[in-house]
Amino acid sequence: MRIAMWSGPRNISTAMMRSFGNRFDTAAVDEPFYAAYLAHTGLDHPMREEVLASQSRDWRQVVNQLIGPVPDEKPVFYQKHMTHHMLPEFGRGWIDQVKSAFLIRAPESVLASYVDKRAEVTLRDIGFVEQFEIFEQVAERLGEAPPVVDAADILADPRRTLAALCDALAIPFRDEMLAWPPGRRREDGVWAPVWYQAVEASTGFGPPRGAVSFDALADPLKPIATVARTYYEKMRAYRL
C-alpha cells in the first residue's frame, strides 16, 4: 500500500508523517522531490546545497524509488509530498500507481505561517493550484473524489479524522498514530533544522489553532489568498 499524501507547505504535513511513521507497519519518506525541484528551479531555499546532496535531482529516479521496493519491506509506504514540488516538467503518470490523499489548510493560515520562514511568497510557492490539479487527475481516474482531510479537523479531533482517513485508505486505524516520542526521525529530510523545530518537540497533534482572517494578512498576501481559497474550497467540499 503506497500512500501519497499531497499537501502544501506550512500545513501539519510533518506531524502527519510522524503519525503514520509511528505505526509499526509503515515506512515513510519526506518530500522526495525537493532536490529535483530546487535543481530545476534554481531557487535559493534554506540549506539548498544540503538538500541537493541528500536526494536525487532526477525526478525519474525519484519516481522509481516511490513505486519500487518499500523501505524495510513494510506493508504501508507513506509518502509526504509537497504539491509545489511537482513542476510541469515532472511527469505525473506514476500517481496512478499509488493511493493518493489530500491534506488541506485554509490559505490565510498557510500564508501567515509561511512568511514567518520566508519573506517572499507567490501562489506557486504554496501549491494550491498544483494540489487541485492532482486532485482532479486522481478523481477522474477513480470516478469519485479521493480522500481529503483538513488540518483544522485533524487538530480538533485527531482520532475521528484519522480513523475516517484510514477507513478511506483501506488500512486499519492504530492508536499509535495519535502520539509519538519527541525528537528527529531517520526519515526526516536534511532540512529539518530549519523547518521542524516545533514537530521535533511535539508528542502528538497540538490543540486547534485560531483561524487567520483575510483582513489580518498583509496587503501583498491578500491577492494570493483570494486565488488560493478558490481551490481550497473546491477540495474542502469533499473533506472527510
TrEMBL record:
InterPro entries named in the record: Class-IV_PLP-Dep_Aminotrnsfr, P-loop_NTPase
Q: Which GO terms describe its biological process?
A: branched-chain amino acid biosynthetic process
Q: Which Gene3D superfamilies match?
A: P-loop containing nucleotide triphosphate hydrolases
Keywords, sorted A to Z: Amino-acid biosynthesis, Aminotransferase, Branched-chain amino acid biosynthesis, Transferase
Molecular function terms in GO for this entry? transaminase activity
Q: Which Pfam families match?
A: Sulfotransfer_5
Mind telling me which SUPFAM superfamilies this protein's record contains?
Answer: P-loop containing nucleoside triphosphate hydrolases
PANTHER family referenced in this protein's UniProt entry, alphabetically: AMINO-ACID AMINOTRANSFERASE, AMINODEOXYCHORISMATE LYASE
Instruction: Name the family.
Output: Belongs to the class-IV pyridoxal-phosphate-dependent aminotransferase family.
What is the protein name stated in its UniProt record? Branched-chain amino acid aminotransferase
Q: Which organism is it from?
A: Prosthecodimorpha hirschii
